[in-house]
Amino acid sequence: MDHLHINSSKKWKYCFFVLITGQSISIIGSTAVQFSVIWWLSTLTASPMVLAYAGLAAYVPQIFLGVFSGVWVDHFDRKKVIILSDLFTGIVSALFAMLLLVAKPPIWAFYILLGMRSVGSVFHTPAIQALVPTVVPKEELIQANAWDQFLQSGALMLGPVLGAFMFTALPLSVILLSDLLGAIIASISVGIIRIKTELISRKASLDFSAELKEGVCIYLGNRKLLAFTLVSTVCMIAFMPITAFYPLMTSSYFHGSSYQASLVELSYSAGMMFGAILIGRFNVKKYISSCKLTYIGLLGIGITSLFSGLLPASTPAFYSFALLCFGMGGSATLYNILFTAYIQKTVPIQAQGRAFSFLSSLMSLTMPTGLLIAGPVSELYGVKCWFLISGSVIVILVIMMLVKENNYRIKDKYVR
Question: Considering only CA atoms, which of 260, 160, 217 is closest in space to residue 348?
Fold first, then answer.
């Protein structure tokens, strides 16, 4: 197979689109499989605890392996890490499909399936994020990330729809086999791109403790990155439970149907796509270094959450909620794309695997931590109350940081 060289400026867009198209196809397959497995568990058991354990099984590998995965990503060939991660996930699903054909596995076996599939993501996510700057010129990172976010948002919209169709038409074993097909397509898209090896320097030996310390020092040595990461962590502890509460907000507060619940999910994903289009169309490069627009993205998440918590329980208000979810998705895209671009631009390429895996591990803790707080509060006062609390926390914290950043700029200007 002929390889595509990226050392020509005329070819980076073609190479990048080959890469993200293959990954988007893989996301569609993986999301469809994930939806089918969760829906199968839901219809089989009708137990909230089973779904809670399933969600926890998907988070555990990230919590325990995430900080180590970046060291591996920075030490070994990132292309091989991505390909092996994709194929590992596909093979795990295929093996479980074979098990379904010959036996009736217990519920706990599905927890293992979800956990093992998550192991592949632990290594895949930081590897693909760290690979992008070796394909895309630094000045084009925002536009590239916007395209990537657009395709991923579309994939995340199509995945559940495809999963629902496949679930009604095919047995679960066949659906699981489709995950391997998506992994093969994604692996081919990565394999045909040749990365300039001089961009990524690797040490002769692998010292986990030393390199983990280096990963932490990346954040400690960059005041803006450290401050925004800490703010993001607190904001995500408040916000992440909301993503789990969407169905409850629709069913228990607005008394809506499953159609209306799917409308909320589609609205959020559509907002993400719209946000990616806007970022790709307008020039926001000058805002990367200041993180100003990244804070604005977080502020948008907070404002839309806050207003969602103020809505009355009525049918017209539900459609206002769906519209707010559209804005929430767009704000989340603004936050994600610019935060990713800031790390890709300011952190050395050879250390980006550790930087992204450390961030991913930190963010993976926000969902269980947030649920520990939001669960009892929502149980006592209702889901709507958490939307209100979450939005208030995010808005107050972000405004405080924007004022602080502005004071720093004024002080620096005065000193000069």
Answer: 217
